[in-house]
Amino acid sequence: MKSRYLRGAALAMFGLALAGCSGRGGHDGRTVLGFSQVGAESEWRTANTASIKSAAHDAGIDLRFSDAQQKQANQISAIRSFIAQRVDVIAFSPVVESGWEPVLREAKAAHIPVVLTDRAVDVSDPSLYVTLIGSDFVEEGRKAARWLLQNTPAGDGPVDIVELEGTVGSAPAIDRKKGFHEALAGHPRYQVIRSQSGDFTRAGGKEVMEAFLKAEGKRINVVFAHNDDMAIGAIQAIEEAGLRPGRDIKVISMDGVKGAFEAMMAGKLNVTVECNPLLGPQLMQAVAAIKAGKPLPRRIVVEESVYPMESAAAAFPTRKY
Ligand code: GZL
């Protein structure tokens, strides 16, 4: 009896040892990547998710994907689940900047490297993640302001702006606002008279713009929207108020999704500052580098352009998202 028990225990230990030797979770030897996505709040996010899934497939990576429905608690739970699954790498797009230290310390304690995509986190210990792959949102905000400065008729009349902010506490909302206001600082003619979050959604943009129009009416000269989805919602509100978006009220936006190009071709959106969501290939390259023990830069910035209304028709056919 005793020898049979010992034999069983020995086999079990051997099995566990094999699992341990094979490294992390992938039973078929593939690299396992756990990815926690913000949600599905915008056209940009849809394109970002598609890029990550297709790039993982092309790279032969076993992708464990979780949609947090824009809730930080769901992202934290997903990261804990990836730790329990002993994935090789964890990547995520943090819905907000703060509140990540505890769970990232758990990943570090489990010796699982973490890659940030799209958005930054505010942590005191830089070793809690390997690299951030994404846009320079402050520069995107500056680009939007520079377009406005270069495309407002000369004169000294007031240019009154309303601002549709992204998700409260998110890196793009914080930094796009910072860049926009910074670039306008030396130009007192330009004033942001109201600013409120529309949470990066069409419905949010429309609802906030309706409130702005009720409060300020024809005083509004410009809408600055932190993403195209909110701009498209604002365009609907402007039209329902009997005004002409793109003409009576200039509309400045960010992302460069298909809906923005369609609005520009219809003369309703004046410019979109591109924010490239196609981060999948760069993420998979970073995962491969980590697995190979190769160093990575702390910041991998994606290249982006500015598309004014006049350029929309020519650019639209080759847009990838
Ligand atoms: C920007 C990204 C933002 C987009 C929005 O990198 O985090 O979130 O601008 C999206 O469209 O919802």
From TrEMBL:
Keyword set includes Transcription regulation: no
Subcellular location: Cell envelope
Keyword Lipid metabolism (UniProt): no
Signal peptide start-end: 1-19
Limits of the Periplasmic binding protein domain: 34-294
Pfam families reported in the protein's UniProt record: Peripla_BP_4
PANTHER family noted in UniProt: D-ALLOSE-BINDING PERIPLASMIC PROTEIN-RELATED, GALACTOFURANOSE-BINDING PROTEIN YTFQ
Similarity comment: Belongs to the bacterial solute-binding protein 2 family.
Protein name (database record): ABC transporter substrate-binding protein
